[in-house]
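Let us practice reading a record.
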Amino acid sequence: MTNSKTYKFHIYEYFLYWFVTALVLLLAIPVLFFKFIAYLVRSTGAPLKSAAHLAGFILVLIIISGAYITYEVMMPYNLGSEHHSITVEENDHFAKIAASLRQAGVIRSEYLFRAAAVLGRIDKYIVPGRYDFRGEVSLYGILQKFRHKDIATVMVTIPEGSNIYKIASILSHDLGIDSTAFAARACDTVYTRKQFNINGLEGYLFPETYQFWYDMKIDNIIEAMHEQFQRRVAPLADSLPPDIASLHDLITLASIIQGEATVDDEMPLVSSVYHNRLRNGMILQADPTVLYALGGAPRGLSKEDLKIQSPYNTYIVAGLPPGPINCPGMKAIRAAMRPADSDYFYFVADGTGRHIFSKTLEDHNNARIKVKRMRRYSRPS
């Protein structure tokens, strides 16, 4: 029988082995690096000497080109403090976008920009909108702006109680859209019936602060505002009060409350007056509806104003008007749904933004006399 012995490594021998291996690699890497550089230098000096020299020369060109492209793509340059803007329209060809950037002074090479965008597949996902550039930028940063759809936006606040024409004016001021075109589109019954199944958008554009973008299409703005209405208000149709027949009637009443009450805590009381009048078959006699019929800004109404022949004149037409007179906020809508429990049938503005509420016509007339006296005495002499 042959005796055999199994040799066992000591722990220090393992450490010694890895130490020697690492040392050899550390010494070899610089040697290999310098030999490689020497090879490239020789190849550049005599590229046609051999196939190896030609391959080295081509490699040098690739390295230099890669370094130059990397520099051009990554190195920032200064556009200054002023905005350089371009607008991307729907279905714009990518070559047109590159040309616009070049004309605006944002990029220095259309071809490099297009090549980098194609390689990064960014050219396939650019969304319409306005893109703003200023300060320190790089080609890489510009490409990332398009990749992340970083279009120029603006916060637009639509106050509660704004009507279609007020909204159009705000959008014109903040976004530069055509206010006449917006109002015409919002009142276009063919469009609103087809798109939203309603006769007009008065009352159906939810008042809120929106993040819109420059050169946004009118239809997209309308869709965003109506979508918010659908999300916030439409679900209330399942829990309407007994004397409100439809969501449309609820929004119509809420718009009158919004137009009448300037103080939020009075909205339920104002609502109770209108609910009480509707239940008792009384005309609403709501000044905001007459103002809407007149198409003017808020002002005192004359006796002649109250005679205007319009379905919105609630001084001569019973019940609710045909539709909302503005776009009410949630507080007015909740007040229309849940009026205060009161016996009030009348109210008059007291000149401070609040109202005096009355149960009888006699009390109401006395309140009106009181308010007139207060106004007379408060006038400067």
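A brief commentary: The mean pLDDT is 86.
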